[in-house]
Amino acid sequence: MTVYGLTGKTGAGKSTVASFLKEKGFYIIDGDIIARHITDRGKPALRLLSESFGEDIINTDGTLNRRLLALRAFSSRENTDKLNSITHPLITEEFRQEIEKAEREGYTKAVIDAAALLESECKKLCSKIIVVYAPEEMRLKRILSRDGITEEEARTRMRAQKSDEYYFSHADIIVKSYAPYNIEEQLGDML
User: Fold this and answer.
1) Could you give the number of structural domains in the chain?
2) What pLDDT, in 10s, does the model give residues 144-189?
3) What is the pLDDT of residues 82-131, one digit of tens each?
4) What integer is the mean pLDDT of 41-49?
5) Of 6, 10, 152, 174, which one has the greatest count of Cβ atoms within 10 A?
6) For the chain, how big is the Rg over CA atoms in Å?
């Protein structure tokens, strides 16, 4: 089983690349779905997150108030690191289980699609890292259109991420998700 890591800054276009790879027969492991799963009502991550970010991040129905958590977690590098220290070990274990499932189902190639892949132990599960890149203003427009948040909230999330150079220094493959945009050509031999 060859496992590729797919990452990039928020709004870079990872989902588009993941969809393309799924069409090409790759098993896709969606980090957003895994992150939501580990923070479902009653999961241990909720208690740990509320201890670090305040009990009010848990709604009265026991679900996570993701927007409030994001406001607090992305307000500083220290808080982002705190969030990651709680969630990344749980997410990594879920990724391992998904890779095993893909192997059982006969897949030979899998993709871990995760925004914080490089900052986590998950990168050790990957043979190669694909970084999706788009310029800042393009990413901002995508985030505002996709997430229904304010520009300030979007910029706060964007500032919480590492530099472009950090992503590029870890990349085996860089996909530029702006015109001209030919994913197949950019991914080349891995397909």
Assistant:
1) 1
2) 999 999 999 999 989 989 999 999 999 999 999 987 789 999 998 8
3) 998 999 999 999 999 999 999 999 999 999 999 889 988 899 999 999 99
4) 94
5) 6
6) 17
Query: In the chain, which residue ranges form alpha helices assigned H by DSSP?
Result: 14-23, 31-38, 44-53, 66-73, 77-104, 136-147, 151-159, 164-170, 183-187
CA 92 – CA 145 distance, rounded (Å): 29
Helix axes 151-159, 66-73, angle to 10 degrees: 50
Amino acid making up residue 153: E
Query: Is 88 contained in some domain?
Result: yes
| pTM for this entry | 0.85
DSSP letter at 145 equals H
Number of neighbouring beta carbons within 10 Å of residue 133? 19
Tell me if 89 is assigned to some domain: yes
Residue 191 lies in a domain: no
CATH code, domain with 8: 3.40.50.300
